Amino acid sequence: MELGGKAAALVLEDADLTLAATGCVHGSYMHKGQTCFSTERVIVNAAVVDKFLPILKKTAADFPVLGAVSNTGPENTLRLVQDALKKGAKLIYGEARLIKPGQLHPLVLSEVTPEIP
């Protein structure tokens, strides 16, 4: 089944922020980002964003780093991340670099606009 797209998670004002962060990180990282339905963006209600980001950062930091099936995916992702940073996105967790070929450090970006792919 092809379910491709830009899967989003929504974090609403009344959300359990720890549970939401866990769901977002697992949805993004669990299958090494290599499924057509992994979480690619998180949209957070402005009322809770300042509380949510530190929880998301810690949750991402606690998730094990996994290698990709091939080297090209992480390399392509790194190029997109570097472009996003040049266009104004903020890196709030991780390092925009490969740990080793085929293995990208887990990352969390904020302030990503619709103009940034």
Automatic annotation (TrEMBL):
Keyword Oxidoreductase part of the UniProt annotation: yes
Presence of keyword Oxidoreductase: yes
Keywords per UniProt: Oxidoreductase
Annotated active site: 2
GO terms under biological process: gamma-aminobutyric acid catabolic process
Ranges of residues in domain Aldehyde dehydrogenase: 1-115
Pfam families noted in UniProt: Aldedh
SUPFAM superfamilies assigned to the protein according to its UniProt record, in alphabetical order: ALDH-like
One MF annotation (Gene Ontology) recorded for this entry: succinate-semialdehyde dehydrogenase (NAD+) activity
Annotated coiled-coil segments of the chain: none
PROSITE patterns referenced in this protein's UniProt entry, alphabetically: ALDEHYDE_DEHYDR_GLU (PS00687)
Family that this chain belongs to: Belongs to the aldehyde dehydrogenase family.
Protein name, per record: Aldehyde dehydrogenase domain-containing protein
